[in-house]
Amino acid sequence: MHRYIISNNCRTKIMEINVTNLGPIKQASVKIGGLTVFVGPNGTGKSYLGKVIYGLRRPETLTDNLTRDAARFYKIIFNQEMTTLQQAIEHLQQLTPAAYHQAIPKLAKLHAELFKKRLSEFFNDDSNLFENSTISFAGIKELDENELQNTINIVLNSNFLQWPEDRRPSPGIIAISLSISPFWEVNRIANYFPASRTYFMLNYKALIHARANDQVGVISMSALLANQPKTIGPLQRFDKPTEDFIDCLYNLDTSKRKPYAHIADKLQNSLYGNDQLQVNQGLGSLADFYYQLGDKPNKIRLHLSSSMVTETSPLLVGLWHWIESGNLVVIDEPESHLHPEAQRKLVYGLAEAVNQGLNLILITHSPYILSCVNNLIKFNKINNEYPDDKNLQMLKQQHPDLVALDKPVHAYNFKLDGTVDDIVLENGLIDEAEFTLPFDRINALYEEMRDIEWDHKE
Predict the structure, then answer these.
(1) In sequence order, which ranges of 170-239 are alpha helices (DSSP H)?
(2) DSSP characters for 375-405?
């Protein structure tokens, strides 16, 4: 479901996605847009769902679906069979925003169904784990008629018939253009940051090299000596989200700074102090990552820096060089290797990016992450309700890095029974029971042992 939430005169677009039988998840319905948080025990499907949401927003998924099944998308939009380019343009000229709007939920449904069919390929799975999975959008509410008409006009103004005949596209280009635009406007591009980012950050060149060898075939030494050249079995690949992350490092272009680069600068200063991450990339070469220690003349290779640096450096590089404005970013275990104070700084920086249009999903096991998000929600509330309060002004002076999180916040608890609960309370805060209850159990056990000890002292 796409709907608009008005917050401080900024419009945030919300998408709702339903899944069933997705790994350990029996059923889940989640909203994304603004900040979304997934919590819950290990093995409850948080990463599966985060990757599926990424996949639905992945440009390659959408374009692959459209190019393979353009005729089906065409039929949904125009209620006509796809024939010639000339007739497609005539159908386009007759298309009204109302008819276009009516087709969009059906386009979304087809997009989700086609993605589901390729889910095993997406996850690099050969176990039929996702055979009975379903994926759907909950529905699409009213979209802006002017935006729809503008999309129709843009496609009309492409003047496909005036292209040279040898370059003239098939009529499917009309369906593809009309099908991509609503999703592109609402969803933007997605980016995924896997857990264990240190491994990929330090080894991406080796992984790329292994992939290249796998594509051309690697001759095993034993087979060569036996004069029976055979290729080693196929390289064990990752799922598509992880492969895409590796590709982002491989295709890194440091010549341009992206819209959230200034937030990466602030995060670097907040997390690293006087130290800096350096990305060295010669013309046409892969990037090398170094860590500059303060004002010392020498720099060290990234593997010699702290685990905090190797875990957070991919996030900084992404904010600097590949995350675009309005993108959806999925971060699995943002707290990895971070001291609670560093977690706080990371959350504050990411919240600032969310306020500036980034859509974010955090998949976390950290109570500190959740508490920090709640603090920012509460800060936004009192900042709006009591802007002139003297104690609030003092609070701002004492905590200058506080961010008034003014975009929608969604949070879900993934449970061992396969269900997923919405844990945003009526007051807008996130229910922290997922973390407080385990702590209470640990504390209760300690108190029982203390009581035993106390009985013997008496």
Answers:
(1) 172-187, 197-216, 221-225
(2) HHHHHHHHHHH-TT-HHHHHHHHH-TT----
The token pair at 110 is 């087809």
199-203, 281-285, 318-322, 451-455, range with the lowest pLDDT: 281-285
pLDDT digit string (tens) for 313-353? 999 999 999 999 989 999 999 999 999 999 999 999 999 99
Please give the Cα distance from 78 to 75 (Å, whole number). 6
CB within 8 A of 190, min separation 6: which ones? 53, 54, 57, 58, 327, 328, 329, 330
276-285: long-range contacts, CB 8 A cutoff, minimum separation 24: 277/309, 277/313, 277/316, 277/317, 279/252, 279/254, 279/317, 279/320, 279/321, 281/252, 281/254
pLDDT one-digit tens code per residue, 21-69: 999 999 999 999 899 999 999 999 999 999 999 998 887 888 888 888 9
Distances (CA, A) of 76 to 65, 105, 160, 195, 455: 14, 10, 21, 39, 76
Q: Counting Cβ atoms within 10 Å, is residue 192 exposed (0-12), middle (13-18) or buried (19+)? A: buried
Cα(239)–Cα(247) distance, integer angstroms? 12
Question: How many Å from the N-terminal Cα to the C-terminal Cα in the chain?
Answer: 64
Q: How far is 215 from 23, CA to CA, in rounded Å?
A: 30
Q: Residues 143-159: what's their mean pLDDT?
A: 84
- Banded model confidence at residue 230, pLDDT cuts 50, 70, 90: very low
Long-range contacts of 420-427 (CB under 8 A, 24+ apart): 420/25, 420/27, 420/28, 420/29, 420/30, 420/40, 420/45, 420/49, 423/39
Distance in angstroms (rounded) separating the CA atoms of residues 384 and 361: 25
Place of tokens 């029982």: 448
Q: Distance (Å, rounded) from C-alpha 14 to C-alpha 126?
A: 33
Q: In whole angstroms, what separates CA 312 from the centre of its chain?
A: 16
